[in-house]
UniProtKB/TrEMBL annotation, chains A, B, C:
<keyword id="KW-0784">Thiamine biosynthesis</keyword>
<dbReference type="InterPro" id="IPR000417">
    <property type="entry name" value="Hyethyz_kinase"/>
</dbReference>
<feature type="binding site">
    <location>
        <position position="121"/>
    </location>
    <ligand>
        <name>ATP</name>
    </ligand>
</feature>
<dbReference type="GO" id="GO:0000287">
    <property type="term" value="F:magnesium ion binding"/>
</dbReference>
<keyword id="KW-0460">Magnesium</keyword>
<keyword id="KW-0479">Metal-binding</keyword>
<dbReference type="GO" id="GO:0004417">
    <property type="term" value="F:hydroxyethylthiazole kinase activity"/>
</dbReference>
<keyword id="KW-0067">ATP-binding</keyword>
<dbReference type="GO" id="GO:0009228">
    <property type="term" value="P:thiamine biosynthetic process"/>
</dbReference>
<keyword id="KW-0547">Nucleotide-binding</keyword>
<dbReference type="GO" id="GO:0005524">
    <property type="term" value="F:ATP binding"/>
</dbReference>
<comment type="function">
    <text>Catalyzes the phosphorylation of the hydroxyl group of 4-methyl-5-beta-hydroxyethylthiazole (THZ).</text>
</comment>
<dbReference type="GO" id="GO:0009229">
    <property type="term" value="P:thiamine diphosphate biosynthetic process"/>
</dbReference>
<comment type="similarity">
    <text>Belongs to the Thz kinase family.</text>
</comment>
<keyword id="KW-0808">Transferase</keyword>
<comment type="pathway">
    <text>Cofactor biosynthesis; thiamine diphosphate biosynthesis; 4-methyl-5-(2-phosphoethyl)-thiazole from 5-(2-hydroxyethyl)-4-methylthiazole: step 1/1.</text>
</comment>
<feature type="binding site">
    <location>
        <position position="167"/>
    </location>
    <ligand>
        <name>ATP</name>
    </ligand>
</feature>
Length: 266, 266, 266
């Protein structure tokens, strides 16, 4: 894996403009749609079961995010997820707030049981809750994992069969066998609502164009992190940061990615 | 029709501040509210049947957008639409994704059957699906019309009795008898989620102040297009474009409209 | 009460990062989440009854906003509100559009009857409707109160037992016994959708850290107003205003607050 792979995958997303279907929360949904466009893909949001099932079958990827869940919405996720599985469409799960309330934890496990998830993107608390290694989640923020983050990520991958993208100061990505640490990113990403959701949208965008889910998720982490670093270097607060983040990703070039990519196998 | 009519209609919106009631999607709803304010009108969003019915009766216009539809939401649209019809309130329909899934197509025709729609705002694919001339819609993006766009727009107007505003590189507006081509606009409008929805909100804002639905929709297309051109000339990406788009529309002056308006009868 | 109290309370929010649980509308929810972060608190949105009840019990404050209400959503507000009451968590109510439609007015009174509300944040029309002094509400905008605003605010507080934060060109805050007039603010706050909702989110953020609800709401009004003034002094329209508003609040310093705070007892 080298940075050229990552920039090549971005070129592929921009050329193919894959449809990325989201069933997501109403808090950050607009930023999810726009970050998908900035990556070169085409977002669609459809949450009613009939609509979601039909969209999932023709999408390049399906992103499930439980940030503002209800049992009906989780049912729609199950229907769309199963249809995506049948159609060979990769499914990204963002288990927002798993561990914070009973319904969020149970819904996460229900989705993981009934749908074959390709990539789980979560913070250390959420991933550790899935892994059963002891995670703390307060609202939708991570309180951290009880043990070593990499061990939790690996355990989560082992249990679910999914590639795992654990966000944090450094991101950890693993498919259980191979693991990467991504040092790209900026502290301002923690001061803007929905950067985690956006990362999942990017996982979907790149999964639709890639053929290896660990590597396409790594590409998402690196490109989003670099965009964050560039945006963070000149912003005055969360909203100027957001403007720069989206605009930077939209026009990011191969040479920028290859120059700033900062990841390694661990 | 001359540019002075358009700038005069904007003055009227700003003076009257008409209430524009939306039943719309949760992806772009915030931008719809704010673009309505930028035009000088007053947005309100109310989707529960009782709330929607009461709001529709006192509004200056009603905007229906099926971007994230459900059967319950479509029912609310029917109730509010019928009440708007009774009260003489113009109804704008944005058939987002008609043609992409069965429920979106069926819901569009159901609304068109039960509610008298004043203006249909859609992309070439959506308008052609309604016209029955063969349109392609992928997610919520147009894959184009099978035949000539103007013919599809005219056929859509003939079938529905509505004025039709077909968005594209050039916009086409027609009421079946008279047709206009609007060349204002900027490619960046295609790189920001929800510009189509915003155009429908502007149709509502201007319909509430105008007395001819084709001309008020033309005013919306021209003023939005000019704002896009100005914003696009200085932006770095979708979010700086959005900032400029809204701020430009908010403070646009008569002379700017009259100088840059670029439309003709076809 | 002096400005040092206000800046001290902001420091406390930033140090404690209280969880502020929202059950709110889908129009302005993203700005509500981000303004909460900009104040130093941690937002969470959860609207399903089970999720909302569990979140409310562990939150530092609960914000209820009926901007896009449905009977189901109001039921969730009642459940979460009662749980918050049991747990001693302050509850902020934003009765968006009370007086504009029957369901909004009735829902407001239902919530006030079943939940002990700590702070009511509304415009003059909404507060006067609750007070029964004769208010006018058009869509979600205030048409003003029939009588003297301060009298309406006091009557609203007397009737409900809540501290009242009435927004307007000057804000009025009262707990029935003590009353304050806040002159901070900027006209651009009226040209951006959701500034009222954001004010309620800030009331929640400060209520979670303060021990007197009138004073924590006053702190919210003053800090938000100062941020608006600074943002308004350099903006070109609603979206550059929004960017500056959020960024200014995010980095506001003690000395800025103490220098610009403009309020007095009335």
């Amino acid at each position: 894996m080298d940075p050229e792979y990552i920039s090549g995958l971005l070129d592929k997303v921009r050329a193919e403009k894959p449809l990325v279907h989201h069933i997501t929360n109403y808090v950050t949904v607009n930023d999810c749609a726009n970050i998908t466009i900035c990556a070169g893909a085409s977002p669609v949001m459809a949450h009613h079961p009939d609509d979601a099932e039909e969209m999932a079958a023709v999408a390049g990827a399906l992103v499930l995010n439980i940030g503002t869940l209800s049992p009906e919405l989780v049912d729609a996720m199950l229907i769309a997820g199963k249809r995506a599985n049948e159609a060979g469409v990769p499914v990204i799960l963002d288990p927002v707030g798993a561990g914070a309330t009973k319904i969020r934890t149970e819904s996460t496990f229900k989705i993981l049981k009934e749908v074959e998830i390709s990539v789980i993107k979560g913070n250390a608390g959420e991933i550790s809750v899935i892994a059963g290694t002891g995670g703390v989640v307060r609202g939708v923020d991570s309180g951290g994992s009880a043990g070593e983050p990499l061990e939790a990520a690996r355990a989560c991958s082992d249990l679910t069969g999914a590639a795992v993208f654990m966000t944090g100061q450094d991101d950890i990505l693993t498919d259980g066998r191979r693991s990467y640490l991504v040092s790209n990113g900026h502290p301002m990403m923690g001061s803007l609502s929905g950067t985690g959701c956006m990362a999942a949208s990017l996982c979907g965008s790149f999964a639709a164009a890639g053929d290896e889910l660990l590597l396409s998720s790594l590409a998402a982490a690196v490109i989003f992190g670099i965009s964050g670093e560039i945006a963070g270097s000149s912003c005055k607060g969360p909203y100027s940061f957001r403007n720069e983040l989206f605009d930077t990703l939209f026009r990011i070039k191969r040479e920028t990615i290859e120059r700033y990519a900062d990841f390694r196998m661990i």
